[in-house]
Amino acid sequence: MTGSAKMGLGKRGSKTLGLALLVVLLTPLSQAMESEWPMTPMNPDLQNLPSLQNGWRLFTNYCLGCHSLKYQRYERTADDLGVPHDIVLEQLLFSGQKIGEQMTTAMDPEMAKNWFGAPPPDLTMVARLRGVDWLYNYLRTFYLDESRPFGVNNKVFPNVGMPNVLQELQGTQTTGCASAAEENCGELVLLEGSGQYTSEEFDQAVYDIVNFLYYTGEPSRLERHRTGVFVLLFLVILFVFTFLLGREYQKDVKH
């Protein structure tokens, strides 16, 4: 066998091994993303700046303590979402970071591993990986489960190793029957008045968080949307002038 043939086999073998490893690594992830829970659809809106701003605020207050956004910078986010830098420095920067730095968490990875079994993942790309419908339903379906280490479980991600960080906003949610006539008692029942928000307010808060994470997954998408509006306006104006110019040419041809 020639040297070139050996090299070709080596390359093919490497590609085959690489594909096999990719399948092995992605299979558990795809299984974890599957859920039998009926998903409520969530439609993100990057033009809704108040939603994106509130989502950023909520993420900073309830999620950034454990989960980083290490591919996203405070300054870029503030400029994209129309938030003045002084407000960011006053209300969204708590760890002594500078506004030009990435959104990292102060949690020590080793301590996090001891507490949760593994360091909490970075969430910059989570909306692209999981999908907005999965995230939206995941954050809304935590319920009390005393058998779990943190006392809660999740309908979308069963046996999740994460506390319900939004419980003070949502309130206490359990599994049970909405009425005595119900036969299926696996549905979620919220104890009214146990949270700071009403059900509608909490759903909006979760929407805002997921909408913000949709933005962080591809920040340039927001700029493309804005640019697209100007491009469409330009094309409309160009069409009008082109149409009028075509009418003038037709007059010359007829005469």
For this entry, give a set of tags.
single chain, 255 residues, mainly alpha, Cytochrome Bc1 Complex, Chain D, domain 2, two-stranded antiparallel ribbon, 10 helices, disordered N terminus
Low-confidence stretches: 1-32
Shape: elongated
Strands, total number = 6
Structural category is mainly alpha
Strand order of the largest sheet: 1-2
Q: Which series of helices and strands comes N to C? A: HHEHHEHHHEEHEEHH
How much beta, percentage-wise? Answer: 5-15%
Q: What's the average pLDDT?
A: 81
The number of helical segments is 10
Quaternary state of this entry equals: single chain
Helix content: 40-55%
Can you identify the CATH superfamily?
Answer: Cytochrome c-like domain
The CATH class is Mainly Alpha
Describe the structure.
This protein has one domain (36-219): Cytochrome c-like domain (Cytochrome Bc1 Complex, Chain D, domain 2, Orthogonal Bundle), CATH 1.10.760. The strands form 3 sheets. It has a two-stranded antiparallel sheet. A two-stranded antiparallel ribbon has the order 3-4. The chain is mainly alpha-helical. It is built from 10 helices and 6 strands.
What layout of secondary structure does this protein have?
Elements: H1 3-33, H2 49-62, E1 69-73, H3 74-81, H4 85-91, E2 102-103, H5 109-116, H6 126-130, H7 132-140, E3 142-144, E4 152-154, H8 167-170, E5 173-176, E6 187-190, H9 199-217, H10 220-254
Helix pairs in contact: 2-9, 7-9
